[in-house]
Amino acid sequence: MTPLFRVRRWIGDHLILGLGLLVLVYTFIPIAVVVLMSFNDSSKSKNVYKFQDFTFQNWLHPFKPGGMQESVILSIEIALAATLVATILGTLAAFALVRHRFAGRKAANLIIFLPMASPEIVMGSSLLALFVSRGFGGQLGFWTILIAHIMFCLSFVIVTVKARLTGLDDNLEQAAMDLYANEAQTFWRVTFPLVLPGIIAAALLSFSLSFDDFIITNLNSGQRVTFPMFVYGANQRGVPMQVNVIGTLMFVIAISIVLSGEVFRRRQEKAIAS
């Protein structure tokens, strides 16, 4: 075996792994920058985008910039409410599309993709036109943002839960029915626990999409300022480093929830297998 052959073989064996690691590094570079800049002392220079000195002050006073606390609270309130409503409605819709046959079912399966495929600027301007035409032009704010966020979150919830339901093994439910479980017991003890990871994933996705949205929110917010809008406005003068603290916190919370969900799922699979 020549050295050249060994090199080619080693590259062939590790090429996919190397490409996967490169993709992961590429994905996590922005997150690493956000975490790093959350410890940046930007008071010593006008260039806030250059790491100057290490400090904990950004973490000790995360809401020091004026208006930031109100914008974060508003974003969290809207994201939680939109996630709750969209998850409940979307889960019910997913069950209806997968478990029941009705006229227009195929069309409904296609229509749910429209909000996901539509550009945000089109959806935001359409909602603004709808609110204004219905006489809500002077009342844009919390409720109009919430309605808009529920609308675009619904499609993502339906698609995510539907995928989980489609891949569900029907034999488990039939086995429960054979063991004299009624429909309610089968649903709550077998179906729902198996679908729950998909529902949690859909809820996390909805919260992230709602908290992060700028274009649709900006068109329908009136005088209210959400966190993405605050960051956009602050960017004209230089983004405060506390923004990176909020970003890091959101990332840590999301990772913690995902890991908890994975642990919960594995415990469920072990319980079912035993």
What form results from the Cα inertia axes?
globular
Global structural class: mainly alpha
> Radius of gyration in whole Å, from Cα?
24 Å
* Oligomer category: single chain
**Quick one: biggest sheet?**
none
N-to-C series of helices and strands = HHHHHHHHHHHH
Q: Would you identify the regions where 5 or more consecutive residues have pLDDT less than 50? A: none
So how many helices?
Answer: 12
What is the terminal-to-terminal distance?
49 Å
**Residue share in β-strands:** under 5%
Helix content: over 70%
Strands, total number: 0
What value does the average pLDDT take?
A: 87
Give a topology summary.
Blueprint: H1 3-37, H2 57-60, H3 68-99, H4 105-111, H5 114-117, H6 120-133, H7 142-166, H8 170-178, H9 183-212, H10 215-220, H11 227-234, H12 242-273
Helix pairs in contact: 1-12, 3-7, 3-9, 3-11, 7-9, 8-9, 9-12
Q: How is this structure best described in words?
A:
The protein is an all-alpha fold and 274 residues long. The chain contains twelve helices and no strands. Helix 3 runs antiparallel to helix 9 (183-212).
